[in-house]
Design brief:
CATH class of the largest domain: Alpha Beta
Strand content: 15-25%
Number of domains: 2
CATH topology of the largest domain: Peptide Deformylase
Strand order of the largest sheet: 1-2-3-4-5
Number of helices: 6
Distance between the termini: 70 Å
Structural class: alpha+beta
CATH superfamily of the largest domain: Peptide deformylase
Shape: elongated
Radius of gyration: 22 Å
Order of helices and strands: HEEEEEHHHHH
Length: about 270
């Protein structure tokens, strides 16, 4: 059944969506209603809160299929791109928003089966925009203070108020990038044994070992700073927790592989 889309200034947009716990006929009916509403309004993506259903459900149109993403979380991301966005909620407004260029998401389908997928480009952007809605946020929460004030002044009743939104870009990512760059430098050093003397190779091994310790320090820094940031956005703690754990697992796996290369290949 086609449902009405919530639109400004309906405060429902600021509600935090709960996780789905029961995968039953009611859930399947919600998904059917979302798909019917998407078709009626020619939408490529929709979150359940946009039709007043306060659960973490996103439906994305992919080719001729409609794919439900239930209890979805971001666990990995690459790159940041800026692009103009529009919203069915704030009609007539467009803003430039930073989003991750590529994301890996984990989610469940309507039968509670777990999945993960890599999204990039426009699909990644649409997914992040819908995920914002699930956590009580909108795209205007991504712009700077000056632009937000301009939008607030433009709207008849001002921006719909809510708590601090959960950002999609965090400062903790600088720790992660630093760790990855350093591991990349170590990997490049793996070719040096073919070109340098054993004495020089021994010095490179010592440097690589020291850099490995620095990577560990950055990973620890990432963890504690991530905890600090997550406390500032408590309404999306579960989302951030999954992201933090996933990132640390990936970094740890990469560190172990690079360490094996250092101690079994570079060691004199």
């Amino acid at each position: 059944m086609i449902q009405n889309l919530i639109r400004y200034p309906d405060p429902t947009i600021r509600l935090i969506s709960a996780n789905v716990r029961f995968f039953n006929d009611e859930l399947k009916q919600w998904i059917t209603d979302m798909i019917d509403t998407m078709r009626a309004h020619d939408l490529s993506a929709l979150s359940a809160i946009m039709i007043g259903i306060q659960y973490n459900i996103i439906v994305m149109k992919e080719a001729d299929s409609y794919i439900p993403y239930i209890n979805s979380r971001l666990i990995k991301h690459v790159g940041v791109v800026t692009q103009t966005e529009r919203s069915t909620y704030y009609e007539g407004i467009s803003v430039d928003v930073d989003r991750y260029e590529k994301v890996t998401v984990i989610y469940e389908d309507e039968n509670a089966e777990p999945h993960h997928r890599d999204l990039e480009g426009e699909e990644a952007r649409m997914f992040q925009q819908q995920l914002d809605y699930c956590f009580g946020s909108t795209f205007v929460d991504r712009v700077d203070r000056e632009r937000k004030q301009q939008i607030n002044d433009y709207l008849k009743e001002g921006l719909v108020k809510g708590g601090a939104s959960c950002p999609t870009i965090f400062y903790r990512d600088y720790f992660k990038r630093g760790a990855k760059y350093l591991m990349g430098v170590i990997i490049l050093s793996f070719i040096t044994p073919f070109f340098v003397s054993p004495h020089v190779g021994e010095w490179i091994y010592k440097i690589d070992s020291a850099v490995l310790l620095l990577v560990v320090a950055l990973m620890i820094g990432y963890f504690f700073y991530a905890l600090h940031e997550s406390r500032q956005y408590k309404q999306c703690t579960s989302c951030q927790t999954g992201n933090i754990i996933g990132t640390l697992v990936i970094l740890t796996g990469q560190w172990l592989l690079v360490s094996a290369g250092v101690f079994f290949w570079m060691a004199p």
